Amino acid sequence: MQAISLEQYARMDRVAVSYLIQGLIPRGGRVMLVGPPKEGKSWLALQVALHVAEGKQFIDRDVQKGRVLYLQFDTPNELWHERITKLVADGVHMPSDVHMIHPDDLPRSVSIDDVPQRNAIMDLVWQVDPDLVVIDVLRKIHNYEENDSTAMKRAFDIINVMFTRPPGSANKGNPALLIIHHTHKLSGEYRPKAVNAGRGSGFMAGEVDAIWLMFQSTLSVESRFADEEHFKADRDPATGLWTFPEGALRKGRLEQVLALCDQHPSMSHAEMWDKLQQQIKQTGCSSRATFFRVLSSAVCCHKRQAACEVSDVHSPNAGLSAFADPQDGQSFVPVAQVQRPLRQYTLQHTSNR
Q1: If one looks up domain 19-244+341-349 in CATH, what number appears?
Q2: Can you tell me the distance from the alpha carbon of 302 to that of 304, in angstroms, rounded to the nearest whole number?
């Protein structure tokens, strides 16, 4: 272990963060999706998995196509299979890049503190080499006391080691995690902040990079890399999947803001707001906060230029490097890599039984 000065740290090479879902799920990031029972959390997580596997836009955000491993430990296999086959019957495409544990290999109970079970899951992750892992649901993979921060730190220490790339993978960085978790009992009279809604120790909220709260047909997102956002949602009565009616409006506003960036590449975002407020407000960004929130959801010409200026990082300290958007100062630090042996386990696509 070595020490460096803040001056040296400020001069370190920066690694540009990339996103699976722009502004919502960074590559290698950890996102916790919380909500009360029967609120549609698993449906939303499955929807995210399908969009990533197809590279299909989610809400108003661009999505990078990738492989997904959906670890489904909550819903009984019979009901899960019924859900998937009904979606297929309703015309929902099941891409081959969404994987799950074969029903014959699905254990009746799971504990990441059990070394053989932990190794089996880790080997499965290495076999699939996913870009996104969905854990459905957090409570079903550990036996720790949720209200004990020390216990939950141990659980997340194990989780952080379990979900890594295999040696020799052509993909860089670890897979992103979408972890489904329950809320504490919520009152319908007020809407809690997403960061305060999860059940158990507050350690979990501080450990992940973003928290999504699905409650009262609204998806609220709080993260360390973008401003807080709220997305109104409707359930499709036929499929049970979510639709986001404001998506088209948000997309149009984003396109106008990106066009302004292209017209003024020499201005920083702060300078654009100071000098072009009237034009910016015509896009629907009524405040500075809204303007920067819209910018955080996409890669504009300024961010592309900044990314081009970032040199490739091959030093041992690369895992400590962070990318900060020079326009807004937000940053995200990737998770480190771990290496271990690989064994073969049975896989199944969601389109097959």
Answers
A1: 3.40.50.300
A2: 5
d(CA 44, CA 202): 23
Question: Where in the chain are the domains?
Answer: 19-244+341-349, 247-332
Residue type, 294: V
| Predicted TM-score (pTM) of this structure | 0.78
Tokens for 321, please give them.
């490097």
Cβ contacts of 165 within 8 Å, gap of 6 or more? 126, 129, 171, 172, 173, 174, 175, 337
SS (H, E, C) the chain: CCCCCHHHHHCCCCCCCCEEECCCEECCCEEEEEECCCCCHHHHHHHHHHHHHHCCCECCECECCCCEEEEECCCCHHHHHHHHHHHHHCCCCCCCCEEEECHHHCCCCCCCCCHHHHHHHHHHHHHHCCCEEEEECHHHHCCCCCCCHHHHHHHHHHHHHHCCCCCCCCCCCCCEEEEEEEECCCCCCCCCCHHHHECCCCHHHHHCCEEEEEECCEEEEEECCCCCEEEECEECCCCCCEECCCHHHHHHHHHHHHHHHHHCCCCCHHHHHHHCHHHHHHCCCCCHHHHHHHHHCCCCHHHHHHHHHCCCCCCHHHHHCCEECCCCCCEECCCCCCCCCCCCCCEEECCCC
Strand pairing report for 25-26 and 19-21: antiparallel
Per-residue pLDDT of the chain (353 residues; tens, 9 = 90+): 999 999 999 898 876 779 999 999 999 999 999 999 999 999 999 999 999 999 999 998 999 999 999 999 999 999 999 999 999 999 999 999 999 999 999 998 999 999 999 999 999 999 999 999 999 999 999 999 999 999 999 999 999 999 999 988 998 899 999 999 999 999 876 889 999 999 999 999 999 999 999 999 999 999 998 888 899 999 999 999 999 998 777 778 888 999 999 999 999 999 999 999 999 998 888 888 888 878 877 789 987 777 676 544 444 443 333 334 434 444 444 333 334 443 444 445 554 33
